[in-house]
Specification:
heterodimer; A: mainly alpha; 8 helices; elongated; B: mainly alpha; 1 helix
């Protein structure tokens, strides 16, 4: 079974196209992120317990939310690939997985910076932190798997399986603060934080979402170009072998 | 109240280093992919002349 897109149906310009809308989205995302962070930092009062440390919430929480969204995309696209076998679903899953991994690493780094002054430690084997670290390791493994397997069909099938299993960890990470006794506070959301912080949190969540969409679209476009090049190289190698 | 402005600054610096660092990486990946495709297309075109 081959899921490769026939080269005849897709010319390089078609895959390379739609550059400008993506770059515009990148610019909008960048401006939105700057604006949302300024809004959060400049308009929210210091927290009664944490003081200005509360402002780390505007980067830590949106990074965590958006890593979950990225892994949700991985799960949906992996399922679609296993069901329909279309290469675009595999490439989109891989793109979302890479971006989700970056946001998960950021979530852990930012949480660690927040944890040091509030908990007194950079790291603790708390269920929320540990399950997030496991999530990160699973998707680092996913990306390593993709770089090791040369056969495109096998790479896509194995990645879809690992992507689905990895995404199953997301609800565990989310619910860990409810299921186990944990040092980490309950999920921060507009319904659980002080009303004074809701606008800043929402604005930063949306801004980071725009950044996430831009990153996934740009990575997906590069992945399609890489795949086209790979197909041409495979064809050249096969023809070279036939002539030999 | 805990004093931690340095930690707040560090968090925002880490966020921006992560976002801009990945944006630069994406730019390089896109550029390399286009070069690879152009080279593969040239080889393919020569084979089919």
């Amino acid at each position: 079974m081959s899921h490769a897109v026939p080269l005849e149906t897709e010319s390089p310009p078609a895959a390379v196209g739609v550059t400008r809308p993506i770059e515009w989205l990148g610019l909008v995302a960048l401006l939105a992120l700057v604006g949302a962070q300024l809004l959060g930092v400049l308009t929210s009062p210091p927290d009664r317990d944490m003081g200005h440390l509360q402002k780390i919430m505007y980067v830590h929480v949106p990074a965590a939310w958006n890593s979950f969204i990225a892994f949700f995309v991985v799960a949906i696209c992996s399922l679609l690939y296993l069901w329909k076998g279309q290469e675009r679903h595999d490439l989109l899953a891989a793109s979302a997985a890479e971006v989700g991994t970056v946001f998960t690493a950021l979530t852990l780094a930012l949480g660690s910076i927040w944890g040091r002054p509030t908990w007194g430690v950079w790291w603790t084997w708390d269920p929320r932190l540990t399950s997030t670290a496991v999530l990160l390791l699973i998707f680092v493994g996913y990306l390593a798997l993709r770089s090791f397997v040369e056969d495109a069909d096998r790479r896509a099938q194995w990645s879809a399986a690992v992507g689905l299993l990895g995404a199953l960890n997301v609800p565990i990470v989310y619910m860990s603060v409810k299921w186990w006794r944990t040092l980490h506070q309950m999920q921060s959301s507009p319904s659980t934080v002080d009303p004074e912080y809701v606008v800043g949190l929402r604005a930063n969540g949306i801004a980071v979402l725009l950044v996430l969409v831009y990153f996934i679209m740009k990575r997906y476009r590069a992945a399609r170009v890489e795949r086209l090049a790979e197909q041409l190289e495979e064809r050249a190698a096969l023809e070279g072998r036939d002539h030999a | 109240m805990l004093e931690g402005n340095g930690f707040v600054v560090a968090a925002y610096v880490v966020m921006w280093v992560g976002v801009l660092g990945y944006a630069v990486r994406l730019h390089r990946v896109s550029r390399d992919a286009k070069h690879r495709l152009a080279q593969a297309s040239r080889v393919d075109a020569r084979r089919h002349i």
